[in-house]
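In this supplementary section we document a worked example of the pipeline. Step one takes a protein sequence of length 125 as its only input; no multiple sequence alignment statistics are reported here. Step two produces a three-dimensional model, which step three serialises into structure tokens for compact storage. The input and output of this example are shown verbatim.
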Amino acid sequence: MNIYCLQHAPFEGPGCLEEQFAELGHCLNIVHVYNNEKLPMAQNISGLVILGGPMSVNEESLYPWLAAEKNFIREVLTTKIPVLAICLGAQLIAAALGAEVRQNPEKEIGWFPVQIDLLSAANPL
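The serialised model returned by step three reads:
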């Protein structure tokens, strides 16, 4: 598979995904959108990974490439191409599909412990 990865900041790369895809025999092409690297044509990719980033999905005036990226994501979503979106990537999908994306009152970054309450303890998932 010819998988493309959209990276939004130099310090937020694909991490272990690159190794995982290589082990499966897939080619991972990283597009550094923050450097205005050209987005591929949707018909030339077989998978898409949209990474996170420190910016807001709504900051197109500061990050003009966000508008083109949302258009690209919208185009990819009309196909049967598999997409994995992480953090900002999920927000970009929501925005590309017309949803309102706004700031959460709580900071969301990193990993946090999960606590299971009585109602969810009975759920097999």
